[in-house]
Amino acid sequence: METIGLLGGMSWESTALYYRTANELVRDREGGLASASLLLRSLDFRTVRACQLEDRWDDAADLLLAEARALESAGAGLVLLCTNYMHKVAPVLEAGLAVPFLHIADAVAAAAPGPVVGLLGAAGTVREPFYRERLAAAGLTVLVPPEDDVERVDAAIFGELCRGVLSDGTRAELRAVIARLAARGVDAVALSCTELELLLRPEDSPVPLLPSARLHVTAAVDAALAPSALVV
After folding, report:
1. For the residues of the chain, what is the DSSP string, one character each?
2. What is the CA radius of gyration of the chain?
3. Active site residues
4. Residue 135 in contact with residue 109, Cβ under 8 Å?
5. Region 46-63: what's the mean pLDDT?
6. How many Å apart are CA 102 and CA 108, to the nearest integer?
7. pLDDT digit string, tens, across residues 77-109
8. How confident is the model at residue 57 (pLDDT cuts 50, 70, 90)?
9. Before 11, cis peptide (omega within 30)?
10. Phi-psi domain of 32 (left: phi exceeds 0; alpha: psi -120 through 50; beta: other)
């Protein structure tokens, strides 16, 4: 299989999910003692979060491109950025790598069961156009929560989930946010923050959930096990 490069640490809580899921998928498909061929670069999230909060996106893009190129130089045949929000700088990585870069929103879009998707994630992912436009380019209509719900989800992500805190109370609040999106007629809700799927399960929603991290790494394993299908 091709080696998958994981650019993670944003947060490491969900990057661990990428690592485990990739290995489980390869074991289940290949059998025996098979495991995934992976290269992992886990960044200090404090540095990246400072770039987000201070609106230093050029610095963030330079940092992530340098790290992605390091994975490429080390032998990665494809690269994943293990976070949704940092896909704001995905065009820089797509243009700057010689190996395929698998965009997380493409994996989410491919799994959508219908044309209308609710978007749940960090405030920047939901408010800014980069992610919604990628989903729209795949033919989806995207609905976002009201601002109060956006703020609540963002607080849960950075105040709790990125720190490894899994609260039943927060789970109940997020279930209510999802229910309000579902009531607006969405066909599915995209969990477009990789930490959200650490807390939420299919039974927490009246409509299908699209777990971005699991979908992303599944697409990567599919590609890694059929490397002839990879194109830059």
Report:
1. -PPEEEEE-TTHHHHHHHHHHHHHHHHHHH-TT----EEEEE--HHHHHHHHHTT-HHHHHHHHHHHHHHHHHTT-SEEEE--SGGGGGHHHHHHH-SS-EE-HHHHHHHH-SSSEEEEES-HHHHHSHHHHHHHHHTT-EEE---HHHHHHHHHHHHHTGGGT---HHHHHHHHHHHHHHHTTT-SEEEE-STTGGGT--GGG-SS-EEEHHHHHHHHHHHHHTSGGG---
2. 17
3. 83, 193
4. yes
5. 97
6. 11
7. 999 999 999 999 999 999 999 999 999 999 999
8. very high
9. yes
10. left
Percent of the chain at pLDDT exceeding 70: 97
Locate 195 and state its tokens: 């930490």
Token look-up 């990879």 returns 230
Token output for 188: 């599915």
Segment 1-47, tens digit of pLDDT: 999 999 999 999 999 999 999 999 999 999 999 999 999 999 999 99
